[in-house]
Amino acid sequence: MVNAAVLFAVLLRLASPVEPTLHVAVAANFHQCAQQLADIYQQQHQQPVTLYNGASGVLAMQMMHGAPYDVLMSADLARAQSLVAARVGEPDTLQMYALGEPVIWAPQGLPDTSVWETTRFVIANPAVAPYGQAGQQILAKLHNLTVPVRVNSVAHVYQVLYSGNVSMGVVAKSQVLSLPESQWFQPPQSWYTPIEQFMVSKRHAVSQQWYNLVLSPAGQSVIAACGYGRVDERR
């Protein structure tokens, strides 16, 4: 016979409301790191997290048009601010969570720097992707006058380079951190406008626990290990 106390506990658990899924839209460069944070979050709170990744500008536009994202983790400030201006995001949830670090990646190995000026690069579209803006600035510093291949996001830049269709491009450091350093070069920070990655939420009450994790020492350590600068390293 089932113990009455055990049966009561089981019934109580079944009757408990299920935590609604937290929907987080994530800039393509940060997707892998966000997955690590989501795994930790779900262990801590038993609340499912669904991640959606893409170019920051595209995700922000989707959110303005009713996409069911609770949080946008943008690769810059401007896209997050646009949601506040549109009264989609709450002003007091606008918070920097990481410093992005762009790198030049050549999967077949970095060629001699003498050919960088004439090599055609692939970069994310500067109109919608902050890493694309950084890529444009980096190419200007290299005095590279070729017309770069432009794709939607740094995730797509990675795919193009991996396929071998283009030999060099600008990606996020987090995407290549585990690869040999002979394949990538980290430009000086003076070569590009700082990539201050901001998040914003529709409702503070829904996202507070997510914010607490991301901005905690443990969360910032995960972010640093992924190849980003911590918030307290802001220039």
Which helices and strands, and how do they pair?
Elements: H1 4-15, E1 22-27, H2 31-45, E2 49-54, H3 56-64, E3 71-73, H4 77-85, E4 95-100, E5 102-105, E6 121-124, H5 130-141, E7 149-151, H6 154-163, E8 168-172, H7 173-176, E9 184-185, E10 195-201, H8 204-215, H9 217-225
Parallel strand pairs: 1-2, 1-3, 6-7, 6-8
Antiparallel strand pairs: 3-10, 4-10, 5-8, 5-9
Helix pairs in contact: 3-4, 8-9
- Helical segment tally? 9
Mean pLDDT: 91
> Approximately how much helix is present in the residues?
25-40%
Poorly predicted ranges: 4-16
Radius of gyration, in Å, reads: 20 Å
Cα-to-Cα separation, first versus last residue: 66 Å
For the secondary structure, the number of strands is 10
Q: Mind summarizing the main beta sheet?
A: 5 strands, mixed
Query: Could you give the order of the helices and strands?
Result: HEHEHEHEEEHEHEHEEHH
Quaternary form: single chain
Bin the strand percentage.
15-25%
Provide the structure class.
alpha/beta
What is the strand arrangement across the widest sheet?
2-1-3-10-4
Shape: globular
